[in-house]
Each structure stands twice: as structure tokens, then as C-alpha cells.
Amino acid sequence: MKTTLDRRVLLRLGGGALLGAWTVRSAGPRAAAPAGGYRWRNWSGLQSCTAQALATPGDEAELARLLRAAGAAGTPLRCVGAGHSFTPLVPTAGKLVSLDRMSGLLAQDAAAGTATLLAGTRIAQLARQLDQHGLALRNQPDIDAQSYAGAISTATHGTGARLQALHADALALRLVTPAGEIVDCGGGRDDDLLQAARVSLGSLGVIARATIAVVPAYYLKRKLWLMPAQQMLDAAPELARTHRNFEFYYLPFTGYAAAIVHDLAPAGPASRPESQDEDMLRELRRLRDWLGKMPSLRRWVAQKLIDPGMGEQALDKSWRLLSTSRPTRFNETECHVPREAGIACAREVIARLERRDDVFFPMEFRFVQGDDAWLSPFYRRDSCSIAVHAAAGEACDYLVTDLAPIFRKYQGRPHWGKLHAHRAADFAALYPRWNDFLKLRRELDPRGLLLNPHLRGVFGVAT
Amino acid sequence: MDADRKTAGRRPAALGAGAALLALLAACGGEDKPQPADLQKAETLRPADAALASKYERSCLSCHGMPASQAPLTGFAPAWEPRLRKGMPLLLSHVRDGLNAMPPRGYCNDCSDEEFTRLIAFMSGGGQGGTR
Known about the structure:
Chain A is of the alpha+beta class. Chain A is built from 14 helices and 21 strands. By secondary structure, chain B is mainly α. Chain B is globular, with a radius of gyration of 17 Å. The relative contact order of chain B is 0.18.
């Protein structure tokens, strides 16, 4: 999940980057939680709840006891990872469960290209630990704060026309079911359950550990450059075909887009220019604030200020380049459309966004290869992913109301963790294995212990 | 103007820690920018206590070990001094409540207040607690 342009794009306003008198405010609620309650909010601040408690089990046995106790008491339970989902997947009046204590690499087999980890391991931690053994993830998402379980459960992905989402490399999973049973799937055991559990929104059980496919550690070289937006839209399919990782960002009201490619490279001294993402974002925001009511002038000024010849190159280990930090909080929608429709859909999204003066965040366009997980948005479909963001604290309802009709037109499957308005009937039409998943969910959790109001709407389960 | 055009609001929006840090750096004239040695130190420093080091590695390092996050860099005193002047109770409340891009509890759901305090002390105290 990316938001800001990942690399250096400087709009030189007034002869240089200006540091305005910004108002900085704390993101979190300050009110104390009610006695006995646990106050939670997601990273962006959009979702929150007061749960009965937050549990942090230390091992599978403790996790199983926790689930059995919740079942006996009829207490709903939801898992929480890094809180980087914008949809209300977590909020519950019951208990929250964090797997923070169940984290770390358990084993690795370089010859077999596999690693086994506890499911609470955060992507950043996993990448570092794999690197210590000369291994790496095949691909990484833009943000690496997520827990592994949370990341695969929502079909977190990176970019690459021939690279699948993170969950496709989950070879085997261990689930603790709502009944408190420990179940292994994958590796020749219950492959149907594996294909369901890979992307399951925490609704089939709690993923406790995973065995994943890994690759030898590798270096990437990065190149970033600007192109006129229309040229970028035309060139994108070929750029995706010829580079290991390709994505582009459309810079609203500028007429420009930025291409970012990563390709395999021989190991060498790391070279990473200092990130200018936040500078760029601030300048785009300032253009919006100053000239938002005059979009033609805003575009003209941007085109005068942008240096189309700027670029950036970097070389480093894969995990240091593929994932980034995002200091500016945002809310986001993202939809995955059939690859052949990606560019046409992007053109419509751009046109719709530029009917709003308040838009300034870059729109992100990525490529993802299809896979076989039942609820994967990439289920048997090579896809293009189109992500649109709004700064935290600003209006974000338009991310759904304005864009959903376009995404629906192109048979888009929304990212499970990003804002959408799809419900069970929509998903039934988009996912061939939808009913199979619902049946399995009912079998594993007949009482809906792992559901919350949002998931009841997603799955069409009555309250 | 398009009748359907929506006009931007002008209320101040929450910004990330980056804005505050950039403003701080600008006010300091830029001489306090982390140098390569500072970045290397932030990458390698770990609390001496193994249990605390484990929590630091999984919860804190990915932001506080990377300048792009704009979180105060571990072991880099200039970033921490103005924060420390505000007092540990306030810093602790920031971790508990979340601040800017740092979510409540700073990605450490099993940290106690005492551990948060020790982690802040480690990161702000020149990494005392030792390298591995």
C-alpha cells in the first residue's frame, strides 16, 4: 500500500521548499477508556472501538484457551495487527487479540526455499531476520509495519506483473479455530482450507504460524523518472512487462506521472538518496491550498515548476527499497481490476478525481499476478491495482462514493483492508469460490465468534 | 468551474511527525541532520536487556532506525533533546495514545508503561544499553 510518491519529486515553489507554519496535532484519542475497557484505533484514526480487553497470548496453547474461553462466554473476538486497514475489520465490543508476543522466525531452509514464522511477525522484522540467513521475501508491500497474519489475511501486495501477492507464498498455515482446535493446512494437508485461509479476514480462525516460500537475498536497482501522464498511461503495460517491479503515480493537477522500477542487480555498495516523499507531498498540498479553486492555474503553475528531467537511482537490498515509511497519515481506497482494463479504468479515475479541487495525493497504479486463494482479489486474474488516498483529517467519503461506480464498471474487486462499500451480494458475483468460503466459515465458526458488524455485512450474516 | 466540482476545505489537517521534525531541523539550521555514522548507529544499537531488545526490534526499529520515517532516530541526541525537555510523562503519553504516524502503543501491544519508559530512555539516551 503506497500513498505518497515514493521517490524524489520536488516542486520548487518560491525558489525552494518552504516550511510553512503547520498545525500538528496528536492523532490519538486522549480520553481514558472506560474501566475494564480497551480503547483501540487504527493507524489513520478513522476506525476505533472500545473493546472489553486486549489479549496478547504468548503461544498457541494460550491462544487456544483464549478462543475456548471466548466461545464459552459468547464473547466476540477480533485479531488486530498493525491497524493499517481502513475498513472496520477490527472494531468489536468483545475482545481484541494481538499476536505481538507470537512473532519471529522459527526455522529456515535455504535449500528448500522455505521459512517458518510465527504469524505475529511484522513484515519489517521478518525481512531483517530472513536477511540474516541470506534469504528474502519474493516481494514486499509498500508498508512493512503489518503483522504477517494481518497482511495475508487482507491480501496485501506489492507490484510486479509476474509477482503475486504476499499470501500466494504461504505454503502452509496453522490455524487455531474458534473451537480452540489447532489445525494445519497446506503441504498436502487440506489444501482447500489453505486456499480459503490464505485470505480470510480473520474469520476462519487465528493464524498462528506459517511456512512460506522465500528466495535467496537479492539486490535491486531502482530508477524513478517523470513522464507526461498520458504518455505514462500508454507506456505502462510495456514498462510492467520489461521490469521486475513497476508502478506509477499520477500527480493530480500537474499533468505528470512518476514511474518507479526495480530490477535485479549485482550486490554492491548501498546507494539510497534521502527520501523526499514528504517534501513532495507538502508541495502538492500547498498547490492545492493556494490554487485549488483555480484548477487551470494550478495545473499551469505545476507544469512550470516541475522539472521533467528529474530522476533518481538507488541500489540496495530488496527489503530496503521495496518497503517505505509513511509519516503522513491518510485514508485509502484501492480496487483491483482485470489487467486488460487497468489503464482504461485509471483514465476514468483520474478524470473523476480532477473534478474535485481538494485532491492532492498521488494516485498509485500497480500490477499484481493472479493466484488461487478463494478470497484473493487476484483470484485467477492478473490485475492492475488502483489506489487513491485522502489525508487523514480531510474528507474521505468520496473515495467510495465517487470512485466505486467506476470500479464496479470494470469488475473491480476492492482491497479488503481499504475503503469500499461492497456487500455480500457484490462479492458473490465477483468471487467464484465465494459460497465455498461462506460454507467453510459457517462450519468453523457457526456462532460467528470471529465476526464483527463489518464482517457480518461482508459475509451476509444476520446479527 | 464545473458545477460538480468540490472545493477543498481549508481547515488544518493533521500532519505527520515529519512536519514537526523538518521544522525543528530548519530551526536548527540543518547542522543536526543525521550523518551516515548516525544512521549506521541507529541500525545497530539494541537494548542490553534481551527481552527489551526483542520488543524494540519488532516494534520500534522499523521507524526509529530509519530517517525516512521522520521518527526521532535511535541514538541521535539532537532529535531527542527537545522531546526530553518535555518530560518523560508526556513522552510516555504520546506512545500510549499515539502521535502523528505512530499508532497508539507504538506497535507494541504487550509493552508495559515501564517497558515503554525504558525503550524511550534507550532510544533517547544515545543507545545506552549497548550494541550487540
